[in-house]
Amino acid sequence: MKIVMLEASTVSRNDISFEEIYKLGEVTEYPLTPVDRIVEYIGDAEAVLCNKTPFTAEVLEKCPNLKYIGVCATGYNNVDIEAANRLGITVCNVPAYSDSSVAQQVFSYILRYSNRTAAYNRFVHDGGWVRSETFSAFEFPTTELAGKTLGIVGYGRIGRTVAKIAHAFNMNVIVNTRTAKQDSTVKFTDLKELLQKSDFITLHCPLTPETEQLINLDALKLCKPTAVLINTSRGGVINEADLAYALNNGIIAGAGLDVLCQEPMAADNPLLNADNCIITPHVAWAPLEARQRLMKIVADNLAAYKQGRPINTVN
């Protein structure tokens, strides 16, 4: 089997082994693939492994030997599934590999706002503690998480992992989800009530026509002025201009974002200079352990396809 890896550098910086992939066939590996060379790089390969490479109907139709697309991610909106179905191409994703990693990132934002560790570190290194008249220089307000309300929008595996951590901090957890769940540890509610009552709001819903720009200015105006918004799902769930306005005008207190509508980030993104906005470059999924787990599942998916028993199919 001829296998092409189109975006190896998006999952490894020479710290992840692709040995299990190489055992499965004749592998050609590219660090990245320009959009105008996708068809050329695929050539006559039967299987491709990708991350964000766009597989439009036009691309798929130009690759008659292609029978398998392995997406090295959970999201697969870069693949035209309807066209893949029509052409008999199996598409597989990795549905669960970064639950703990993403949940950990969520709480890195929450603790940044509640404990102000970075601000205090700067204060100390700027000589503030040296000059302090008291042993405890509490210059910046901090807050306990116990008793605070965390609102979770979307309650899949990651949302549930976030809820477990929140309970460990003795937080109240309320949830808005499109699919009914059985969980007596949280309160299910509509989005309006969640926005009104939450001290921290974290988004874990997929990007769909229903969730696109779900968080806009009208939604943000429902929030407490002390609320912090967190997004580790998809950038398009938020109207970025509206969020920047809300941050700059005190409608909410802060934001922690790992995803944006355009990635890499555009230089003119209004959130780049917005008040109290922490932005990380889509790395919540990327701890070493999570990427090792990811590539093992990618290899398992391809091995199962070769054996005629495909797993984790999305079409």
Can you tell me about this structure?
It is a single chain. The chain has 315 residues and is an alpha/beta fold. It has two domains: 2-97 and 288-306, Rossmann fold; 99-279, NAD(P)-binding Rossmann-like Domain (Rossmann fold, 3-Layer(aba) Sandwich). The chain has helices at 19-22, 38-42, 57-61, 81-87, 99-115, 117-125, 128-131, 157-168, 191-197, 217-220, 240-248, 288-306, and strands at 2-5, 26-29, 47-50, 68-71, 90-92, 149-153, 172-176, 187-188, 200-203, 228-231, 254-257, 277-279. The strands form two sheets. Strands 8-7-6-9-10-11-12 form a seven-stranded parallel sheet, sandwiched between helices. Strands 2-1-3-4-5 form a five-stranded parallel sheet, with helices on both faces. Helix 8 links the parallel strand 6 (149-153) and strand 7 (172-176). The longest helix is centred in the C-terminal third of the chain and has 19 residues, at 288-306. The chain is elongated. The two termini are 22 Å apart. The model has no long low-confidence stretch (mean pLDDT 97).
